Amino acid sequence: GAVVSQHPSWVICKSGTSVKIECRSLDFQATTMFWYRQFPKQSLMLMATSNEGSKATYEQGVEKDKFLINHASLTLSTLTVTSAHPEDSSFYICSARDSDRAAYEQYFGPGTRLTVT
Amino acid sequence: GDSVTQMEGPVTLSEEAFLTINCTYTATGYPSLFWYVQYPGEGLQLLLKATKADDKGSNKGFEATYRKETTSFHLEKGSVQVSDSAVYFCALSGAGGYNKLIFGAGTRLAVHP
Predict the structure, then answer these.
(1) What is the DSSP letter of A47?
(2) Interchain pair A108, B43: CB under 8 A
(3) Residue B36 near residue A106, CB atoms below 8 Å
(4) Which of A8, A19, B27, B83 could bridge B31 with an S-S bond, Cβ 3.0-4.6 Å?
(5) What is the pLDDT of residues B23-59, one digit of tens each?
(6) Distance between start and end Cα atoms, chain B
(7) Residue B25 CB: number of other CB atoms within 10 A?
(8) Is the previous residue joined to A8 through a cis bond, with omega within 30 degrees of 0?
(9) Cβ of B82 under 8 Å from any chain A Cβ?
């Protein structure tokens, strides 16, 4: 079946630094990738939708200059948290979808836990 | 806006017990409804879906019926196994299922032998 990987699975960084999270579709071409954020005991919140070769579409309230998303190829999207602060600590999840698929036909990565100290 | 509310966990059951995880939703129009499951260390996987009122989604012994009158989509299984231990997410998307997914908070299920 379709597999999506994320790297790293967990990362600790110091306040003020930037950290990059990779999301890869391993056995299919992902024309659309999604980035979610999950707080403890809360639901997954969609941060942004990225389509290969174009700018990401951010959800209301998500700072696009802080959460930089790049979807440069059909198998790779990256999320860069710039100038990270402790409040950015969270669980970040990506998902990927082939073209023309319905929203529910997303394949999810296992997530990346970010801790900012 | 659209939202999903599901029962808080954790839910702890003995093997072969009956499972119900409640899910209710608020949405305009006629959304599609889904249950996703996340096993430890893995990504979310679609468990079952229903795209219109009175539809019943089923998979791996799990069932859920789209109840428009009560805006609910409760997940049930008649006899749980230890291998069912996971986090279960209820979700919806706009009519036709082509819009973004909106998730509930997730319910952790722990099944003991």
Answers:
(1) E
(2) yes
(3) no
(4) B27
(5) 999 998 889 999 999 998 888 899 999 999 999 999 9
(6) 41
(7) 20
(8) yes
(9) no
